[in-house]
Amino acid sequence: METSSHSHTELLRAVRTRVPLDAAQLLSRESVETVAEVLRELPAQLAAEIQQHLPDHLCPDGRGETTTELEIPGTVAEMMEPAVGVLDAGTTVEAAIAYLRGHDNPQQITYLYVTRGKRLAGMVVIRDLLLAQPGQTLASVMLPDPFALTADMPAGDAIKAAVYRHYPVYPVVDAEGGLTGIVRGWKLFERQAVEISAQSGTMVGLDKEERVQTPLWQAFRQRHPWLQINLLTAFLAAFVVGAFEDTISKVVALAAFLPVLAGQSGNNGCQTLAITLRGLTLGDMDGFPLRKLLGKEMLLGGLNGFLTGLVAGAAMWWTAARDGNEQAPLLGAVILAAMTGACVLSGLFGVMVPLTLRRFGADPATASSIFLTTGTDIAGMGLMLGLAAAFVL
């Protein structure tokens, strides 16, 4: 039968069930208008592959190009690439295998994506394709309704979705379910690695994009504003210490233990902060009860604070006793209580600081360490000096 005598529906069906090279040979007998009409009704990627084999005079404008989503920074579209291995649901297994053999880069095809019209209907694993009968259609061997990302999905959400799946390739669809591209699994995990590695810098006010090769003045402009904020928060801690100037002047040994307390509570808070940020990045916080996390971290802080407080309290007792202070045991108890309380509060701050930043639309990792250490310094020093003023003097 001559192709020119096919009705439009028959021609469209014939094109969809052939590999791109055969489909192009079929269409080469048609008029430019007929070819353009058929290509408009095919999935974008399939139409583009067919155009590669059409004579120049039959190609509509924009040969080989497909319409894709704009690459919005921070979304799946930024990592997306054109889909390969897109075939119609009516394509036979024999034709699909011939398509793979004739493809320029078959090693780039991990799955065959099966479409009905423009919608993604399923995907075929190459192993299943090779084990199927030649006359079977892809619709009969495909995995229906596969998991897919959307082009406008934030990269962080895509990473969370990929963490528990570990697929080598993820299809990307639009709002109507049409296949618009694919994202390689390694790209998602590469982005995840970058995000996690950047957290250590953003926690202390570094820009995510700063590298060893970043120019001096650019690094200065990115870092300095946060150092000014850190200075202001340090003044708050200094104000708390200044408010207990009389207490420190009467028990000078307390001054020596201020950095000990601040260091221990700050480190405990940073441990909690790191776990919380990791949970936010990997999606572990989704659905996890906040009260349970707070209880765990505060109890953990209390246990660590008590054990380290025993050592610090014994050191204070020995120091005060060496200086002839009759209240050495009480001072040791003050250090123990302050260390325990400060570590409990640092556990609270380590959870709440990033969650509060996210609540207000900021990056949870952004300078979170600065706000954390300010909170732990004020709480820890205030607690130690307040207890000393209340029970020792």
From TrEMBL:
Residues 142-198 form the CBS domain. Signal peptide: none annotated. GO terms for molecular function: monoatomic cation transmembrane transporter activity. The keyword rRNA-binding does not apply. InterPro entries: CBS_dom, CBS_dom_sf, SLC41_membr_dom, SLC41_membr_dom_sf. The keyword Magnesium applies. Coiled coil: none annotated. GO terms for cellular component: membrane. It is a multi-pass membrane protein. Keywords: CBS domain, Magnesium, Membrane, Transmembrane, Transmembrane helix, Transport. Belongs to the SLC41A transporter family. This is Magnesium transporter. It comes from Solimonas fluminis. The lineage of its organism: Bacteria, Pseudomonadati, Pseudomonadota, Gammaproteobacteria, Nevskiales.
